[in-house]
Amino acid sequence: MASQNPTGEGASITLSVRPCDRAFLRRLFTAARDGLSDELEGFADQLCEPTSQLLSELAAYCQLLDGLGGSPVLPDQAMREAVAALAGAVDRENQYPRVVAEHDALHGLLVQVEKALA
Fold first, then answer.
1. For the chain, how are helix, strand and coil distributed in percent, rounded to 5?
2. Burial grade of 29 (CB within 10 A; 0-12, 13-18, 19 or more)
3. Would you call 22 helix, strand, or coil by DSSP?
């Protein structure tokens, strides 16, 4: 159930995550949070992005982890950008466009074979 944030920054939400997705998301957000923490602690003076931006991203991952535990979250632009960046990174790492093309090719062929057997 959403409730209005008293600071006027928007509505809080309770995340609805399938149980089978929870462990993956927890690992992903934990790795992202820990990686950012390490960068901020060890390399803050050498970072290309502003520290404030990285702190906002870090806060988003922390809030998402809390949200996976049932706490309400306050979505904002930093959270949207963090989730979008992770989705893009996972797609690139898993070669999503190639996998989809291969899936479509095989299933298109399967339909033809099944149709011939009917």
1. 70, 5, 25
2. buried
3. helix
Report phi then psi at 13, rounded to 5. Answer: -130, 155
DSSP summary character for residue 11: E
Report whether 59 contacts 77 (CB < 8 A): no
45 pLDDT exceeds 80? no
Return the domain boundaries, the chain: 3-117
Report pLDDT digits (tens) over 2-43: 444 444 467 999 999 999 999 999 999 999 999 999 888 887
Angle 19-43/51-68 helices, nearest 10 degrees?
A: 150
Which helix (H) or strand (E) element contains residue 12? strand 11-12
- Residues 26/83/16/66 CA torsion (nearest 10 deg): 50
Of the candidates 17, 21, 16, 56, which has an alpha carbon nearest to the alpha carbon of residue 36?
A: 56
Q: For 70-116, what is each residue's pLDDT tens digit?
A: 999 999 999 999 999 999 999 999 999 999 999 999 999 999 999 99
